[in-house]
Amino acid sequence: MSSRLLRSALFSSITAVLLTATGANAWAACRVLTPPEGWSASTVQWEGACIGDNADGLGVLKELQGSSVKRSFLGRASKGDLLLGVLEEPGKPWVAGHFDKGRLLPTEDRWPAISAFEEAAKAAAEAAARLEAAGDKPGAQALREKSDLLRKQME
């Protein structure tokens, strides 16, 4: 198995466990107005920075299937719309870049993906800090490791 595929599988596993464990929290009232293309708007949950009722800043968007995380987005939102980050779905390659109304903006340039992985790593680090503050040291450590894994994608 290639090291990139192995890292992707590891990232998927860690993400599913940690994001399920974080559950509903104070950010549950925040919303993403346009989730990624193909996601069910009724099953998404934003955990991260908000302004008013809208996601705005770094965070994690989860699409839930029952109590399990089906797929996730780590990165930055602005005024309720996803802006820059990484989509993760178990068993599939990461999708990284700039988003507009839930759609990945096509580009031949490499810098949007680089920026997206950097923002996703920051979002994971902030989520780790929230877990640490809530007393979940193992979860926080796993998210810090995920943050490191995201940063290594640019090596």
Q: What is the domain tally?
A: 1
Question: Which descriptor suits the 3D outline?
Answer: globular
Number of strands: 6
Strand content: 25-35%
User: Class by helix and strand content?
Assistant: alpha+beta
Q: Strand sequence of the main sheet, in spatial order? A: 1-2-3-4-5-6
Helical element count?
3
Low-confidence residue ranges? 4-27
Order of helix and strand elements from N to C terminus = HEEEEEEHH
Mean pLDDT reading: 84
Proportion of helical residues: 25-40%
Structure commentary:
This protein is an alpha+beta fold. The chain has one domain. 38% of the residues lie in helices and 30% in strands. It has three helices and six strands. A hairpin with a 2-residue loop joins β3 and β4. It is globular. The two termini are 19 Å apart.
